[in-house]
Amino acid sequence: MFSEKYVGTNQLTQSIKSGFSIVRPLSDRDYWEGIKKTAYQQVTSYINGIGAFDFSLPASMYLDFVRNGNRTRYEGVCFERRKALSAYALLEAMENKGNYTDKVLDFTWLILEETTWCVPAHGYLRPEADGLPNDEHPCLDLFQAETGCLLSFVLRLFQEKFEQISKNIVPRIKREIDFRVIDNFLIHDDYWWQGFLIRKNEDGKRYVVNNWNPWILSNVLLCAAAVTPPGERLQSLVEKVMRSLDNYADAYPQDGACDEGPSYWNRAGLSLLDCAYFLNQITGGYVNEFENEKIKNTAEYITKVHIGNGFFVNFADCSPRLAANYGTIYKYGRLLGSETMVSFAKECFRLDKSNAFTLWQMPRALELYEAMPALSHLSAPARAFQDVYFSSTQVMAARERDGADGLFLAAKGGHNAESHNHNDVGSFIVYKDAEPFFIDPAHEAYCAKTFSDQRYEIWNNQSCFHNTPTIGGKDQPAGAGFSASCVSYEAKEDETRFSLDIKNAYENKDEIQKWKRTFTLSRKNKEITITEDFAFNAPEKIVLNLMTVCDVAVTPHELIFTADSGKTLSLAADFSKFHVICEPVETTDSKLLSDWGKAPTRIRLELKTETDKGKFTFTIK
């Protein structure tokens, strides 16, 4: 997308000389007074709440990850340091009285003194690390890059004030950003996320990089804009960024689907847009891919997977509710001329005004504060797509009527080697009036197991804790070869139908002749039907797994699901053929409990007799 078109051209050499500023100077008082109107209360409220927070990061806390698998203790304090720096920097920029300059310096110095800006869970990227980082070999992970970006903003804002305090501050900041981020990126080609290493999966296909690529590269560009003067080094960096970014962008699907789910789209597709924008700015407009259809499809993806009331289609490692970066979405909606994105950003802001301080991601925090006056004027409800299908990921969504009210169905095919994969081929979710009834349970807080060879020991990654069958005592394994086949999608005015054969998703697929699932949302009948049509080489035990956060009442001919609001859905079938077992999931995970407000319940429909073929239809209405 980028390198073939721009790298090595005379125009690129000439255009890079202009550079660009990543933040308005303190002297632009009209700008900062405008930010003060939208940000002041949020920022001061955060600072007043810091109190006696302990910002210390001892080595023993860094070692938590290798000792007991915990990554949240260190990350919690690490991120809070950066959030505090952002808050004090914004507060001083808004007031410009010098009252908080020392606080900005204190937290800047505290972060400069850290041996690494890489979090413990990512230390594996550098072989020199052994549980503790090696200060001579910095590791360029997501948060090393994010920290460099934050310090770049602080440098641009406070360089003059810092120089009045000491001649040693500014050179130290520049040196650390250059050593840990810029130079690190330029000398290394062996970070997997750069996409230069040829990695092969079990099927011999080229490994595709994920959200790390644009996430890190967008921050590298902002660091370079702040500390790397125009010249050959900056050009080399820009060209390398484009070559690396192509390893992600070229593989990104034309339809804009994010196989990592809506929450990672914030740092996958949206960071791809960031890279395109920063490349455009750093080259004075020469690099311009905003007419590219893939870019627009990528941008509008998030609007197509919004169920309503802040809920999203949450397959893979994705929470059901998202704090969408609606300031950034609004910015790109206007840039791309997408009224769909603009109205969606306004709708998200209406639903969640509390997301005004986006951790310590200074660019996105400022984009939000800049957009808030416009976001507060909701001109029209966000468009609710009646039918959506992403052929690249085999994910569909359909709703009964325009808007969030009525039935909503999403289902997926795909395979079990997707980025942030759950073993969930053939799974589905159902909402009514934007309330969850049949769910994807989402993921628990990340730990050492999450991205290791023990990933599928975690219950919420297993197919038996999704809305999929267990066949002959076997569930779905991980791997690209475990996939859907015979996938068919058809959307009409009165109904939408999605069917697929999921037999190849199972370990015992050679014993399965077929397992065809057909989902139909009928707008005329105001119902969803799910038909299971299966055949085996020999009689097998069958269990149909269903996940919910509703109360469930069992009768011979229907299961009645009651949401917290009191609204109900029924699942109708001949349940006399099944043992119906309701099992609350035993979890104390604070993230998952926060997502749903309670622990999910798994319903196991165990067919009473083994069989070699059959056909069942379940009706949801």
In short:
Helix content is 37%, strand content 20%.
How far apart are the first and last residues' alpha carbons, in Å? Answer: 46 Å
Structural class: alpha+beta
Overall average residue pLDDT: 94
What Rg do the Cα atoms give?
26 Å
User: Low-confidence segments, ≥5 residues, pLDDT <50?
Assistant: none
Could you estimate the helical fraction of the residues in percent? 25-40%
Q: Report strand %.
A: 15-25%
Biggest beta-sheet profile: 8 strands, antiparallel
- Count of DSSP strands: 21
Q: Tell me, briefly, the overall form.
A: globular
Strands of the widest sheet, in order across it, are 11-12-13-14-21-18-17-16
Put simply, the count of helices is: 18
Oligomeric state: single chain
Q: Helices and strands in order, then pairings?
A:
Layout (H helix, E strand, L loop, with lengths): L2 H4 L3 H6 L13 H22 L8 H4 L1 H5 L3 H24 L5 H12 L29 H24 L3 H19 L24 H16 L4 H18 L12 H4 L3 H14 L10 H12 L1 E3 L2 E2 L13 H11 L2 H13 L10 H14 L11 E4 L4 E5 L7 E6 L2 E2 L11 E5 L2 E4 L30 E3 L7 E5 L1 E7 L3 E7 L10 E11 L4 E14 L1 E7 L2 E4 L3 E5 L5 E5 L5 E7 L5 H7 L4 E7 L3 E10 L1
Antiparallel strand pairs: 1-2, 3-4, 4-5, 5-7, 6-10, 7-8, 9-15, 11-12, 12-13, 13-14, 14-21, 15-20, 16-17, 17-18, 18-21, 19-20
